[in-house]
Design a protein that fits this description.
By secondary structure, the protein is mainly alpha-helical. The protein is about 70% helix and about 0% strand. Helix 1 runs antiparallel to helix 7, helix 2 runs antiparallel to helix 3 and helix 2 crosses helix 5.
């Protein structure tokens, strides 16, 4: 039963929360479960599942969201080479977060996991905003290919939108919140020490192991 919980329930919870968080308009801008999903997948899922689960979920939802945004705003070509290159670097950031999660263990302290999730959110913000400045898919005039333009991309952003500092705040808040949620679920579905030892045989004593007579045998 514990094995079923960890292999089925935990991925199902991760995917359900992530899918809900990507419904357009449900969350504030940059308030996403994606950072925590990538980090916690690296922590709790070893082997191919730790890569396939978060990256597959993000790819499917990104395709769906691109279709949605293209339909609602045809003036912006979300399938342009610049935007796809920018999106591709998001996946580089997700891979970094998964690798960061690999450095932790499911048995790590709750505060340790929370700190790792916040660090992952910071890394994601830095990488993706640098990518937006580098590829500039929507041709924002503020994103000049200079040091000043890069700093603008990391701090102020483009005109007509909230500043990137507000996005950074939402990135940190969501990274911490969803890491706490995923970490709590991961620890609740993990095997307890009692479950791990259930059914295990008690070790034989030295006398029983070498066939030495026990007190009851001596009386016979």
């Amino acid at each position: 039963m514990p094995e079923v919980k960890s292999k089925i329930l935990l991925p199902a919870v991760f995917l359900a929360v992530f899918a809900l968080s990507r419904i357009p308009g449900l969350m504030p801008l940059n308030f996403s479960a994606a950072y925590a999903l990538a980090f916690c997948a690296g922590v709790f899922f070893r082997g191919p599942l730790g890569w396939c689960l978060p990256l597959g979920a993000m790819l499917l939802t990104d395709v769906g969201l691109n279709c949605y945004y293209q339909h609602n705003d045809p003036a912006h070509n979300v399938w342009s080479s610049e935007n796809l290159a920018n999106l591709g670097l998001n996946y580089v950031a997700y891979a970094v977060l998964i690798l960061l999660g690999r450095g932790f263990k499911p048995q790590s302290s709750f505060l340790g996991l929370l700190g790792g999730g916040l660090l992952g959110a910071i890394l994601f913000y830095f990488i993706t905003n640098t990518a937006s400045w580098l590829f500039n898919p929507f041709h924002n005039p503020e994103y000049t290919k200079t040091l000043a333009g890069w700093i603008v991309a990391l701090t102020k952003g483009t005109g007509g939108y909230p500043s990137t500092w507000e996005f950074f705040r939402n990135t940190l808040l969501s990274g911490g919140l969803f890491t706490a949620l995923f970490g709590a679920v991961g620890k609740l579905t993990a095997e307890s020490p009692a479950e791990k030892t259930a059914g295990a045989r008690e070790p034989e004593s030295e006398g029983e192991a070498d066939g030495a007579p026990q007190p009851e045998d001596a009386k016979a």
